[in-house]
Amino acid sequence: MASLGAIAAACTTDTEGDAVHEDAPVITYQPCDGIPADAIAQARIDAQAPVRENDTNPTSNSCRYLDSDLYYGVVISARAETVQDIEESGRFQVLSETEIGGHRTLVADFRGGSACTVSVDINPGILEFMIGYSELEDFKTVDAACGRTLEVAKTLAPHFPDHL
User: What is the distance between the alpha carbons of residues 97 and 108, in angstroms, rounded to a whole number?
Assistant: First the structure.
């Protein structure tokens, strides 16, 4: 499952190496604390103990759930980015737009074709769900990964915070 770790690391740094901007929103929500274990189970994530990550550049509080079979994982991140940042970034190819839990949501393929992201617009940033895909993982295609990522996000929607 090296690719999930690589994906998580790739998503926690600014692609230009820029410093965090002074006007970046403050993100206090941590998915490991905010999403109850029974909701994770309801989303059919048979995970080992979640791994908490708090990063800067941009600010991101993440929770990685590595499945017990080690070939699948979900990263849920509260990020100091907006859906507009995702749309304008060269890091993602936006595949579709939808609404989950009353929030504008973008479905995108992470640059290089390695992960599907579902970015839910929650003030002041996004709640991002990410599942990787490759020949070595449970999900071999972006469509398969995005289908599962959307399923997880929709299942967890009742537990979305009012504010990140």
Answer: 9
Q: What is the number of other CB atoms lying within 10 angstroms of the CB of residue 80?
A: 21
End-to-end CA distance of the chain: 29
Q: Which of 98, 56, 50 is nearest to 74 (CA)?
A: 50
Name the β-bridge partners of 91: none
Q: What is the pLDDT of residues 33-87, one digit of tens each?
A: 999 999 999 999 888 889 999 988 778 999 999 887 767 899 999 999 999 999 9
What span, in angstroms and rounded, lies between the C-alpha atoms of 143 and 123?
Answer: 28
What is the Cα–Cα distance from 76 to 99, expressed in whole angstroms?
Answer: 17
Tokens standing for residue 73: 């994982």
Is the model's pTM score more than 0.70? yes
Distance CA 6, CA 10 (A): 6
Measured over the CA atoms of residue 33, residue 39, residue 43 and residue 49, the dihedral's sign is positive
Tokens found for residue 162: 């009012």
- Whole-angstrom Cα distance, residue 114 to residue 123? 27
Q: Which residues of 38-72 are buried (b: 16+ CB within 10 A; e: fewer)?
A: eebeebebebeebbebebebbbbbbbbbbbeeebb
Cα–Cα distance between 92 and 116 in angstroms, integer? 9
